[in-house]
Amino acid sequence: MTSSEQPRRRGRPTAPLLSQEKITSAAVELIELRGYSALTMAALARQLGVAPSALYNHVSNKHQLLRWIQDHVNREIDCSDFEVRPWDAALEAWAHSYRDAYARHSLLVPVIAVTPIAGSPHTVAMYEKVAAGLRAGGWPDDQVMDVVVAVESFVLGSALDAAAPDDIFDVPADQAPVLARVVGARVGRDAARAAFDLGLATVLAGLRDRLRALTP
Amino acid sequence: MTSSEQPRRRGRPTAPLLSQEKITSAAVELIELRGYSALTMAALARQLGVAPSALYNHVSNKHQLLRWIQDHVNREIDCSDFEVRPWDAALEAWAHSYRDAYARHSLLVPVIAVTPIAGSPHTVAMYEKVAAGLRAGGWPDDQVMDVVVAVESFVLGSALDAAAPDDIFDVPADQAPVLARVVGARVGRDAARAAFDLGLATVLAGLRDRLRALTP
DNA sequence: CAGGCTAAATGAGCGACATTCATATTGTCT
DNA sequence: AGACAATATGAATGTCGCTCATTTAGCCTG
């Protein structure tokens, strides 16, 4: 069934076949269809009906492509609550939305954590809203980023954890009796979700206390 | 200076040149010397004075090698406090030690988070101590792992954050004025460390509250 | 309107890796 | 002594990201 693929035209086409938007969308589609391991430059080019080398006229390398994808994913994160609800409720909703997005893109987590945000407009917009919300909620300037980073660290760690297999802590009871026991005590639930919920509730409670202590 | 490398003997040597211990140590040494990007199977073999293919008689693939390294790194994590101090103090010390270890091995973080611990003896031993400490501290069986995973998520997220460049949040003030302002308000400090300390203190405060509410 | 510059595509091919395989050698077990 | 298993070598393979020379077409300028 090798279909009749007429050899494509060389040279500059009438209208450009590629753009940042098209490349990013195709990459995200590919990831959602077949996972991150399927995201190769060759596969992406194929998806776009283009030769692999053509991509490099638009994106400098695969790492930059991942940053585009990251910014695309960040667009899905909901931080509208910061404009209409108290800081702690908004932070909770943001954290949930953030975790869910990256549970589906856990391979991006190590990329996010290390990449300057400046080149990513949606990402910058997100942090701007979060920072404004915390400041409006009474947090002092010099602690806002610490709060953001702390919560974000927990969120990204949890996103990684969400990608783990359910039996990650399974262990023979004779090797580690206490561990086997407490691991057994949480079967049935969505373990990663439960840990995230407990952790987030804990963090929020701690933050409320801390802010209260700051502003008597 | 291409030194006189006599062609090495083929076939089985009198004493095995390789073992899990030797391979892992050499890999860790290589990483500490030249970073993770230098950890290739060829470079590792070279470090051990052996042909690359010889490694595959001992380790099934690079991913398994990373798991050996992970277990090796976990051996450095200090969790002795769980046997001699209150659960919250021990948890704090553990988290610090854990973060510091993986700040130096952040490339392993996505591997840890997803790999079953069963094949890693030091890792199992670590969790056993932590679980026993929390249980002894009064935490109910069905919440111990949630606490462990929540703290671990924060720790691993923070370890990733520690590997980020200092200027990761730098942004033109006209694009995101509030963000620029709060980012500017924390210059001078070790930002990642400050966020970790704030977050850990917050989590511990929240956990103490929670346990107190459970056991009146 | 001719000539040149630039954008954007093609396809060949390179180098870095992880991994596999046929083969050789040697210690150990029967 | 002979068979087998363990452990090394080195050649080869396949996948990838990426580069480069080349081609083509639109646009700008004199």
From TrEMBL, chains A, B:
Record feature DNA-binding region, as residue ranges: 40-59
Keyword Cell division: no
Domain HTH tetR-type span(s) in chain numbering: 17-77
Pfam families listed in its UniProt record: TetR_C_1, TetR_N
Family annotation (InterPro entries): Homeodomain-like_sf, HTH-type_TetR-like_transc_reg, HTH_TetR, Repressor_TetR_C, Tet_transcr_reg_TetR, Tet_transcr_reg_TetR-rel_C_sf
Sorted UniProt keywords: DNA-binding, Repressor, Transcription, Transcription regulation
PANTHER family: HTH-TYPE TRANSCRIPTIONAL REGULATOR RUTR, TRANSCRIPTIONAL REGULATORY PROTEIN
The protein's name in its UniProt record: TetR/AcrR family transcriptional regulator C-terminal domain-containing protein
Organism: Streptomyces fragilis
